[in-house]
## 1
Amino acid sequence: QVQVTESGGGLVQAGGSLRLSCTASGGTGRTYTMAWFRQTPGKDREPVSAISWSGDNRYYGDSAKGRFTISRGNAKNTVYLQMNSLKPEDTATYYCGKGLYRILVFASNPTTLHDAWGQGTQVTVSS
């Protein structure tokens, strides 16, 4: 069973940057997309960014476009989310999800396309 672990959250001032890291372990031989979601209390988990197994295809939600960059490490089970020009509205718990497929697939509820999640890492942006 694949286990997902995130790290890199923290407190940062508006305009600052953070880099989140995510590692999926236990999935030797498997190929899958990975994605970042975020969630605030009382709201649904929102897709932020996703990357295909090859790394050739990326998705960014409207809130992430132009400010966040997703990438895979040399070990493809590691994914990073570089977040620049952070805003107070980026404050949320960020979750990394392991996708069911090796290519990006879209659905009305994208959380259903992921079968393993990390515990979440808190990002707080102060104004």
## 2
Amino acid sequence: QVQLVESGGGLVQPGGSLRLSCAASGIIIRYYAMDWYRQTPGKQRELVATMTSGGLTNYADSVKGRFTISRDNAKNIVYLQMNSLKPEDTATYYCKMVGIWGQGTQVTVSS
């Protein structure tokens, strides 16, 4: 059974940084593509970042240059490093792999 568990969210001031983690079990992450999404109340989930099994990455224009997706194959964890955070980055962030979603972690950017 595949499970994804996000962590690392919290409250941060504008301009600050956070690193989100997505720990996977029941699956070996290096063989699969992985996505990070985010969602705010009343809106659809937005694809933020993608990493293919081969390590190629892609980002939403709104986060390009500020967010970085990476993975640690030994730990079976995918990360989302978020720098220069803005209030509009406030959302619940989810990881997704092989159609499975994590439970989400809340990120709030506010002074």
## 3
Amino acid sequence: QVQLVESGGGLVQAGGSLRLSCAASGLNFSIFRMGWYRQAPGEGRLLVAAISWNEITYYAGSVKGRFTISRDNAKNMVYLQMNNLKPEDTAIYYCNTDPPDGNWGQGTQVTVSS
């Protein structure tokens, strides 16, 4: 069974940085395209960044130039470095495959104050 455990969220002022981590198990991690998703209050869950098995990356327009996704296949980890955070980045952040598997982790809360 796929398990995804996100960590690294917190409260930060606008302009600050956070690094999110995701530990994945129960899947052949190295062959999957992995993504970071976020869900703001009252909104749907959206893909913000993804990285393929050969490290080709995708970013949503709202985060391009500020967020960087990376992965460590030896550790089954995927990361999201978030710089120059804005209040509109406030959300619960999740990792999953892209497209997503039905199993979601608990997510990690990111709150950006203005």
